[in-house]
Design goal:
five-stranded antiparallel sheet; alpha+beta; 4 helices; binds biotin
Length: about 240
């Protein structure tokens, strides 16, 4: 237990999912803002009901905070930017980009995932997995994955957590003070594939088109046959150059 940049931090040897644990704790919160980490996760969850492989040495964290804004889902963009900047603290020149809606790619491969959920009352739970030491085999994940270690970044889960919380506080303040427009502007500067051909997999179909950015609600703007379609949820794939 420790206080880290305004966050009460609890680390556990093992849990099924840090998101589940944080949601449970949010009914009786140990502090207004708290973060739960675990060395091992036995049932890590990803987006859209997928499994999140929780390999030894990686970071599994869930931030819990009260968020009265109805637009709390915009926080995925805040968190993505904070993750990107944390990676750049270690290697300022590294090729790190963002992929809609919430992936951070190092040299085109996914190094983290974000799962935003509701906790008790006004609490929201921001679950984040970072491949610090090891990456799942690409056959087992939707996108090719990489670890920070194989990209030459030598850190550990606790050091990365501390560095990340500082960046999160910074971008959260930007969101609160200047609104989503300021976050969106920053996000678009770091987005991969802008104005390029992409495919978006939706539950029942796949759409091909040109990635024209995001709207004021964070929806992806896809241009198909001169028409813009807004997409709220889906998996993006880039066409090979
Ligand atoms: C994704 O599918 O990209 C999101 C993955 C989110 C994984 C993290 S690991 C910590 C937290 N606990 C979970 O069970 N999931 C999130």
């Amino acid at each position: 237990m420790a206080d880290l940049y305004g966050w009460h931090w609890q680390d556990y040897p093992e849990t099924n999912s840090t998101n589940d644990l944080a949601a449970k704790l949010s009914a009786n919160p140990p502090a207004q803002r708290f973060v739960v980490t675990a060395e091992r996760q036995t049932q890590g969850r990803g987006r859209r009901g997928r499994e999140w492989q929780s390999l030894t040495g990686n970071l599994f964290m869930s931030l819990a905070m009260e968020e009265p804004s109805p637009n709390w889902s915009e926080l995925v963009f805040v968190v993505s930017l904070a993750l990107l900047e944390t990676v750049r603290v270690y290697q300022p020149e590294i090729n790190v980009r963002l992929k809609w809606p919430n992936d951070v790619l190092v040299k085109g491969r996914k190094i983290s995932g974000i799962l935003l959920e509701k906790g008790a009352g006004l609490y929201i739970i921001i679950g984040i997995g970072v491949n610090i030491a090891a990456a799942p085999l690409s056959t087992e994940s939707l996108y090719p994955a990489a670890s920070l270690a194989e990209s030459g970044i030598n850190t550990d889960r606790c050091a990365f957590l501390a560095a990340f919380l500082q960046q999160f506080n910074r971008f959260y303040e930007l969101w609160i003070k200047s609104g989503f427009a300021a976050v969106k502007e920053q996000w678009l500067k770091k987005a991969l594939g802008l104005n390029r051909e992409i495919s978006v997999n939706l539950p029942r179909q796949s759409l091909d088109g040109i990635f024209r950015g995001i709207d004021d609600n964070g929806c992806l703007l896809l241009e198909t046959a001169g028409k813009i379609t807004k997409i709220a949820a889906g998996d993006v794939f880039f066409q090979k150059d």
